[in-house]
Amino acid sequence: MNNISAQELWTRAVDAIRGEIGEEQSELWLRPVEALKLDEQILLVRVPNKYFADGIKKNFQKRLSLILKDITSREIGLDYEISRDLKDVLPANDPISDPSPQSDFPLSELNPRYTFGSFVLGDSNRFAAATAEAVSKSPGTQYNPYFIYGGVGLGKTHLMHAIGNEMRRLRPRARVLYTTSERFVNEYITCIQHNRPDDFRSKFRNLDCLLIDDIQFLIGKDRSEQEFFHTFNDLFAAKKQVVMSSDRSPKEMSPSEQRLISRFEWGVVADIKPPDLETRIAILRKKADTEGFYVPDDVILFVASNVKTNIRALEGALIRLKAFASMTGSALTVDDAKDILKDALTSESSSPVRMETIQRIVAFKYSVEVRDLKGHQRTAAIAMPRQVAMYLACVMTDLSLKEIGRSFGGKDHTTVLHAREKIRKLVDADPFFLPLINKLEADIRAVENQ
Predict the structure, then answer these.
(1) Measured distance CA(103)–CA(297) in Å, rounded
(2) Are 395 and 298 in contact (CB under 8 A)?
(3) SS3 (DSSP) at 2
């Protein structure tokens, strides 16, 4: 074996270890390595960057040394020449690998539409989103692990994909893996059944960032839960980022591996609450813009006021409205939205707001009496609040135009229609008028929910 070349020796060693670590790991870690020379008892190899050198040393060097000894009948050590050092391309203390133009590690597909730019901020999610963005820029630091919890359809998955997308944008070679707890459990079971637990561990414990969704479904699955516990420990010890989402806070969980709870809380725990009215309006507008679909502001206000459960329900409502508009070719109205979405409205909106509440809140806002709204004065000081109250009645109740007119001192339905159209045009044209309408609507809802 004295005449064996460096490249031949390395090729034989890689062929020997491939059957043990699998084709994927071999291609990922060892294919980019080039053998340079065999000098005495040292095999010098060139690796793309320091990340490769560290990874091979940690995961494969011991076994490679034994294989090299079997091939040559003597002790052979490995030395590394680095093509491009990380310190030349990354900020100091950056734990992530070399950001070259192409990623060699497409471990999971991230939804390109889920970015921080497409995430609508509001009081209900501002802290969670700000922390997620900080995680993507400084992974593995003070925000590690990051635990997001909240109800279904509130944007947890969006934020997780946004973290992954931003990390890959900043560091294209970053090993970012998004998965669900169900997929994690299924992969673990498959590897156990085929007696290949090391493949599973090699995949999950050599990441720069693990994003695992719906972690609550992993709780109670003893062996899988324990495997995640050890995966978490390895990643955390290596200063790699772990991001988890759940429908409940860590304190509300009861894992068999009790030490998991304390680890969930080592970093930052953030909750996402259902979006408030203003945020729901912003979500609908952004979604409509993205879809290239015009929705009148009074329709948006109606949908945002009545579909409150989660963001998915809001977007689903908008898709239904778009389908209706596409089929009919006509402009959407609030009456259309009421009819199309009647089965999607929340239980809150199934109990319509009382007319007296609308009249009382509007009268107080404009410093007039409720009897003035029901009277026949047509001065601007009375006509404007009366029209606003009629508009809100159209949006917030199930009453017909005729019934609304009767509630305002026996006005004709055409008067109510005129008021609705006038206020709708003001909402569309005046950027300062919509916030006033939103505030009135929120005040009315607050009184009704007391």
Answers:
(1) 43
(2) yes
(3) coil
Q: Which amino acid is it at 164?
A: G
Average pLDDT over residues 260-273: 84
Q: Are strands 77-82 and 209-213 parallel, antiparallel or unpaired?
A: unpaired
Enter the tokens of residue 254. Answer: 């009861």
Residues whose CB falls within 8 Å of the CB of residue 66, separated by 6 or more in sequence, listed in order: none
Separation between Cα atoms, residue 341 and residue 304, nearest integer Å: 12
Q: What residues form DSSP beta bridges with 209?
A: 176, 241
pLDDT digits (tens, 9 = 90+) for 318-373: 888 888 888 888 788 888 888 888 766 654 444 568 899 999 999 999 999 999 99
Q: Are 218 and 185 in contact (CB under 8 A)?
A: yes
Convert the pLDDT of each residue in 62-112 to its tens digit: 899 899 988 888 888 898 887 644 333 333 444 444 433 334 444 557 888
Is residue 200 a contact partner of residue 188, using CB atoms and an 8 Å limit? Answer: yes
pLDDT per position as a tens digit, 190-245: 888 888 888 888 889 889 999 999 888 887 777 888 889 899 999 998 999 999 99
In Å, the largest CA–CA distance within the chain is: 109
Provide the H-helix boundaries in 171-296: 181-193, 197-204, 222-237, 259-264, 277-291
Residue recorded with tokens 């310190």:
87
Antiparallel, parallel or unpaired: β 42-47 and 34-39: antiparallel
- In 3D space, the residue among 243, 223, 221 whose CA is nearest the CA of residue 232 turns out to be 243
Q: Please list the alpha-helical segments (H only) found in 238-346.
A: 259-264, 277-291, 297-306, 311-328, 334-340
CB 33 within 8 A of CB 56: yes
Question: pLDDT value at position 351?
Answer: 54
Residue 216 amino acid letter: Q
Pick from 236, 214, 241, 53: nearest CA to 139: 241
DSSP string of 341-382? TTTTS-HHHHSPPPHHHHHHHHHHHHT--HHHHHS---SHHH
Give the strand order in the sheet containing 42-47.
34-39, 42-47, 77-82
